Amino acid sequence: MGRLRRLALPGCAAALALLISACGGHKSGGAAAVSNAKVLNLFIWADYMAPDTVDKFEHQTGIKVNVAFYDSNEDLETKLLAGSSGYDIVVPSASFFERQIKAGIYLPLDKAKLPNLSNLDPALMARTAANDPSNAHGVIYMWGTIGIGYNEKMIHALLPDAPLNSWRLVFDPAVAAKVSKCGINFLDSPAEMMRIVYSYLGKDPNSDKPEDLAAAEKVLAAVRPYIRNISTADYIEALANGDLCIAVGYNGDLLQSRDRAHDANKGIDIGYVTPREGTILWFDNLAIPKDAPHPGNAHTFINYIMTPQVAADITNFKRFANGNLASLPLLLPDVKADPGIYPTEQIMARLKVQTADSAGQARLVTRVWQKFKTGQ
Questions:
Q1: Which of 292, 302, 296 is nearest to 23 (CA)?
Q2: Are residues 18 and 113 in the same domain?
Q3: pLDDT digits (tens, 9 = 90+) for 45-72
Q4: Nearest CA to 44 among 57, 61, 25, 34?
Q5: Which of 154, 131, 98 is closest to 267 using CA atoms?
Q6: What does the DSSP assignment read for 2-17?
Q7: Do 135 and 194 fall into the same domain?
Q8: Do 364 and 237 share a domain, yes or no?
């Protein structure tokens, strides 16, 4: 799910440069030598922790954390594939993680060093095993869904019986043509959007059948005239401000739009739905690169994040679900009860984990998506 749920912070480039400089001295024979220094080099999506997550870890352990940020899975993957990155912990999204595991990028976890694994939700771990067999290389950090954020008032002014709980809202040209007047945004994420179209068509979201791709291409071509924006960056504010009435996006983004609209108190109400035809789950995972200079400290950090109170603090602040079953009693009531954050069992039953495309399938999907974006 490249996801732009967390925007890079100012100073990110400088922090990254300092991190790389600090880690450069650990290289030996093309791989990072293990160090006993009380240091941890963390590479993570920006603005993805509670304000005191790192401070409390440093205080408890005496381990200094150097934090650098990325804003796309592609950026992370490029650095990891180059080798000798100097990072101890990274946070890849599930389908990228699967591909990277196959490429031998990560250390297997030493689960004897992770007693807090017992706090994780077995049902969610079973889901992520589709990407990481036996959960050998990663631990769930946060997870969520892709769905539709919508301004019901604006939509119903154009189409009173609009199917707000269905992908028909954006993929049925007869519907999209009418509601497009108030603005529709699609994610600029080919693999994820293709799986959503497959869900709409009642097909396997992870299909690699040529005929399914051809059917999805027809759906996209039919609605292209009605899509105002194709972006992973701008829809949060646009939906909150009333510049859009519909956005296909990540649940955390769309709930942020809802909260911003509420705080602005301008009469704009944003809803979020996981459509009835189904959608995909996204997972972000804590993982240790195989050449991490401080793998012991990395295990210490992962175990810390799996502490129920730590996981709950992050979820309460960021409004993203975590994979820590033991943290649920510690969540704020409005967070725990929000189906946009923690889907009901009925919603969970129609959610699918995104698995990695083969290199050939990824090229085909990208080609179809580029045609869609350019309107050719």
A1: 292
A2: yes
A3: 988 999 999 999 999 999 999 999 988 8
A4: 57
A5: 154
A6: ---SSPPPTTHHHHHH
A7: no
A8: yes
